[in-house]
Amino acid sequence: MALACLAATAGAQSIKIPDFREPPRATLAPGEPCERCGTIRSIREVQSTRPVPVPKAFQNDPINQEGPAPPVLVGAVIALPLGSGANKEKPFVGGVGTPEMRQRFSETTYEVVIRLDDGGFTTVQRADGASFQVGDRVRVRGIELELLAP
């Protein structure tokens, strides 16, 4: 009885294993028109930074001409301005560090250029552009790209 109950409990759990295989490719029927189909011509990695105004008190000044160097502030910061000068500064939540560290706080996207079957070109900005290759046949739906079978 106890063994049957254990087996029923184990069977009731739903564990979903992620599928890391290549995504399925759509197929077009012979002669099926496709207005927004084409071939990927180029994929370019684009680094974009989001400039965040760090409060003056948390900025690390790399140039200190007199005396010992001040400590470099690194880490997460929550700043809530209080007092008489508080109306000039805005609350800040974010990270602080050296200028080199700030350069690493960037976002990578991919600019995918597609040559359409009608002869035109279109460009799509994607976060997952590395999953495509130059020469892949795709269907463009807004900013979505659907791989087509060769």
Number of E-state strands? 7
Structural class: mainly beta
Strand % is 25-35%
User: Total helix count?
Assistant: 2
Specify the helix fraction band. 10-25%
Q: Helices and strands, in N-to-C order?
A: HEEEHEEEE
Distance between the termini: 56 Å
Query: Main beta sheet: strand number and arrangement?
Result: 5 strands, antiparallel
What Rg, in angstroms, do the CA atoms define? 27 Å
Let me know the average pLDDT: 75
Global outline: elongated
Return residue spans where pLDDT drops below 50 for at least 5 consecutive residues.
none
Side-by-side strand order of the widest sheet? 5-4-1-6-7
Describe the SSE topology:
Elements lengths: L1 H11 L24 E13 L25 E5 L12 E5 L2 H6 L1 E11 L4 E6 L10 E5 L2 E4 L3
Antiparallel strand pairs: 1-4, 1-6, 2-3, 4-5, 6-7
Care to describe what's here?
The chain has 150 residues and is mainly β. It contains 2 helices and 7 strands; from the N terminus they run αβββαββββ. The chain has helices at residues 2-12, 99-104, and strands at residues 37-49, 75-79, 92-96, 106-116, 121-126, 137-141, 144-147. Strands 5-4-1-6-7 form a 5-stranded antiparallel sheet. A two-stranded antiparallel ribbon has the order 2-3. The longest helix is centred in the first third of the chain and has 11 residues, at 2-12. The protein starts with a helix and ends with a strand. The model has no long low-confidence stretch (mean pLDDT 75).
